[in-house]
Specification:
597 residues, alpha+beta, 8-stranded mixed sheet, 5-stranded mixed sheet, 24 strands, 34% helix, elongated, binds adenosine-5'-diphosphate, binds magnesium ion
């Protein structure tokens, strides 16, 4: 083929491939444009999964007659003028390619009227250059109609999923954007059904709650964190409303939805040990950061970002969430009415809910509509934030009501303890609580160095398989840290010359433990996250050393266990996230016995 200059239409169509893969992408671009134009009300209407018709109407600033054709031209934007502007761009769009791309793959009709203009103007394009603007009628603002999306790119059309799937994606994107923009009213009409009708509110909490579901309101704890100018505001779900997917996890950076591995990881870390594996906590976070410290220009859809210092953000998110979770009483209530259903069923099959979480009032702070306002102080520096974060954390301050100490502790069925606190009756799983207590102690000790070890006069020889020998080598650091002095002697034997004192004191056979830990550590992918692996292995230790169901405890032992409950963090859940205690509220008992006032 001879070399040819591509036509502008073809260039736009190719560009469209990057940003516009499906109707939901069109919705995202057009809704963001409306927000950039200062809209207070945005209506989205979709027919046939969006490929038949998309109409986005706003009451924003509007476009002048003369700018209409420019709006559809490639690389035409009103939002940046020079490369320097990119540094601090405060609008959602700035590449000036969305409208041109969409116009190149659809039948587009753009009607707009400036607030100060007497009439509206309309311009149309059918997969190519736009015609001349024509006068039209209509209220101030802009309405964009996109019909027959991809009519001239059959290959792309083939990639579209069924209408309901595309609709779900449209709905998802509208909800996401609406979450970050509570000051703007949103409606979404899919076919002839209005599926979303959100009034403008001035309180970010109520918008998030409206979208997550009002029934979750009591289970959403407020996150409000500030470190050297960066702010994190949001709502963190109690462990109880963790869901089977990560759908209810959303992170926004300066109003923009982002996906970021490091932040996702921080989130998991914050909830580690509070939710069982396979469950995903509900978390909505709005991070506000000086835009100069992030590069959002990494991907055309701008959902991936590059932080100047990802580590600091990771730490800040973790601190923010942990701080919130620590401040609340997370003891689940044994809700006797709710035999099934509820926000989510608990792993044990019962359906406890978290009562008294006290989501608290709403904050005046929240996601910022206008990026220019409320930005962190220009002097913000990661270094400052880091040093602030590295300050020792204040000792655990839980709102967990204290257990009455002057009463006899009842051990029932040799596995549960019955005690009373100000709110009601607590049922405690002795194994789960003891496991958490020992886990926290082990973690504290390992934080100061390696676990204490006991030298063996005669080394112990343990028979193992080849995998264990290999895993001993890769995990040697961790093995030493938890208190073992272990060396391979031959292809199938390990010699132990020192073992963790902790295991001996709790009558756990150290050789067996090491073999199990090595097998666990050699499972796929575990070696990659050393911190997580260490944590898991410490938990194995704690679990093996903890009292079991069936162990009768003396009154003295029971008292010691309960005393420890109040001195550690996350006493409400065992390290695997299962609850250690359930509360039957005294009000519930009163009601059941007909004593309610
Ligand atoms: P970008 O948003 O990156 O600037 P677009 O192609 O999305 O590029 O839009 C091009 C221009 O058209 C914008 O910069 C803006 O000036 C104008 N525009 C688009 N949509 C609207 C709207 N809903 N209201 C007012 N102006 C708009
Ligand atoms: Mg745009």
């Amino acid at each position: 083929m001879p070399i040819r200059q591509l036509s502008p239409e073809l260039v736009n169509q190719i560009a469209a491939g990057e940003v516009i893969e499906r109707p939901a992408n069109v919705v995202k671009e057009l809704v963001e444009n409306a927000l950039d134009a200062g809209a207070n009300r945005i209506e989205v209407h979709s027919e046939g999964g969006g490929s038949q018709l998309l109409r986005i109407t706003d009451d924003g600033a509007g476009i002048t007659r003369d700018d209409l054709s420019l709006a559809l031209a490639a690389h035409a934007t009103s939002k940046i003028a020079s490369i320097d502007d990119l540094e601090s761009v405060g609008t959602m769009g700035f590449r000036g390619e969305a409208l041109a791309s969409i116009a190149s793959v659809s039948m587009l009709r753009l009607r707009s009227r400036r607030h100060d203009a007497d009439e509206a103007w309309v311009i149309e394009a059918e997969g190519g250059p736009a015609g001349e603007p024509q006068p039209a009628s209509g209220p101030p603002g802009t309405s964009l109609e996109v019909r027959s999306l991809f009519f001239n790119v059959p290959a792309r059309r083939k990639f579209l999923k069924t209408d309901p799937t595309e609709q779900a994606r449209i709905s998802e994107i509208v909800q996401t954007i609406a979450m970050a923009n509570p000051g703007c009213a949103f409606t979404l009409r899919l076919g002839d059904r209005t599926t979303l009708d959100l009034p403008a509110v001035d309180d970010p909490r109520s918008r998030v709650v409206a979208l997550l579901g009002r029934e979750l309101s009591d289970e959403l704890l407020e996150v409000d964190f500030e470190a050297a100018g960066a702010t994190i505001w949001g709502l963190a779900g109690t462990p109880q409303i963790a869901g089977p997917t990560a759908r209810r996890q959303r992170v926004f950076l300066n109003g923009r939805p982002i996906r970021d591995k490091a932040i996702q990881h921080a989130l998991r870390e914050a909830y580690r040990g509070l939710v069982v594996p396979g469950r995903h906590p509900t978390v909505v976070l709005f991070i506000e950061l000086d835009p100069r410290l992030v590069d959002v220009n990494v991907s055309p859809t701008k959902s991936e970002v590059r932080f100047r210092d990802g580590g600091a953000i990771h730490q800040a998110v973790r601190h923010a969430l942990k701080g919130t979770l620590r401040k609340h009483d997370l003891v689940p209530t044994l809700d006797l009415d709710r035999s099934s259903g509820g926000p989510s069923s608990s792993p044990s099959g019962a359906a406890p809910s978290y009562g008294g979480g006290g989501g608290g009032g709403s904050s005046s702070r929240g996601p910022q509509r206008e990026f220019g306002s409320g930005l962190p102080s220009p002097g913000f520096e990661y270094a400052a934030m880091k040093s602030e974060l590295e300050q020792p954390v204040a000792p655990a301050q839980t709102l967990m009501p204290a257990i009455r100490k002057d009463l006899r502790i009842l051990q029932v069925h040799a596995k549960y303890l019955l005690v009373e606190d100000a709110e009601g009756v607590l049922v405690i799983d002795q194994h789960a609580l003891h496991e958490r207590v020992m886990f926290e102690q082990l973690k504290a000790r390992i934080g100061e160095g390696a676990l204490e070890r006991q030298q063996l006069l005669v080394p112990d020889v343990v028979e193992v398989d080849e995998v264990a020998i290999e895993s001993l080598e890769t995990l040697s650091e961790m093995v030493a840290k938890i208190g073992f002095d272990a060396r391979p002697i031959g292809p199938r034997a390990i010699s132990l010359s020192a073992v963790p004192s902790f295991l001996l004191s709790r009558n756990v056979e150290p050789g067996d433990f090491l073999v199990e830990a090595l097998a666990f550590g050699s499972e796929k992918g575990r070696v990659d996250d050393a911190e997580a692996l260490l944590s898991e292995v410490l938990d194995m230790m704690a679990c093996k050393a903890a009292v079991k169901a069936g162990d009768r405890l003396t009154q003295h032992e029971l008292e010691a266990l309960l005393a420890q409950r109040e001195s550690i963090e996350r006493a409400t859940n065992c390290p695997h996230g299962r609850p250690t205690s359930l509360r039957i509220p005294i009000t519930e008992l009163d009601r059941r016995f007909g004593r309610s006032s």
